[in-house]
Structure formats: C-alpha cells, structure tokens
Amino acid sequence: LCRRKQDEVQVLEDTIRQRSEQQKKAGVELDATCHICLKTKFADGVGHICNYCNIRCCARCGGKVTLRSNKVRQT
C-alpha cells in the first residue's frame, strides 16, 4: 500500500515537471499560475505553497495532509 502511494506521488511529480517544461517552451509565465492544473491564475501572494516540494497550487488541486506528528501541512 505504501509503495503504491509512493509510485503515485512519483508519477504526479513527473507529470507536473513535464507540464511545466512544456509551458516554459511555450513562453507562459508560471509564477502566477497553479503548477498542477496550469489553469488557475493567482493575484500576487495568493495560492498555497507545498512545504515539501515548494510547488504553488490552487485550492482545488491542493489539500491538507495530516502528518504523524499530528501537525497539518498544506500541500
């Protein structure tokens, strides 16, 4: 079960990386755009940044994850 989840995370990270490379080739600025769906555009300072991978995402794509230490982190 844990291995399957790790594989899913790896696939998602690869997909995000590929999409961002495609957008950079097209000349689209990613600073004010959700790095996961690449659709939602942010005003300055809006959007959630993952504490682990530093990816900026919108509320639809991001979620909160409960860690073992019972702290909630935004991803």
From TrEMBL:
Gene3D superfamilies: Zinc/RING finger domain, C3HC4 (zinc finger) (3.30.40.10)
Keyword list, A-Z: Repeat
Protein's GO biological process: calcium ion-regulated exocytosis of neurotransmitter; positive regulation of synaptic transmission; regulation of membrane potential; regulation of synaptic plasticity
Claim: Lyase is one of the keywords in the record: no
Highest taxon above the source species: Eukaryota
GO cellular component: cytoskeleton of presynaptic active zone; presynaptic membrane
Metal-binding as UniProt keyword: no
Ranges of residues in domain RIM zinc finger: 34-72
GO terms of molecular function: small GTPase binding; transmembrane transporter binding
InterPro entries for this protein: Rim-like (IPR039032), RIM_Znf (IPR054386), Znf_FYVE_PHD (IPR011011), Znf_RING/FYVE/PHD (IPR013083)
Record protein name field: RIM zinc finger domain-containing protein
Organism: Cryptotermes secundus
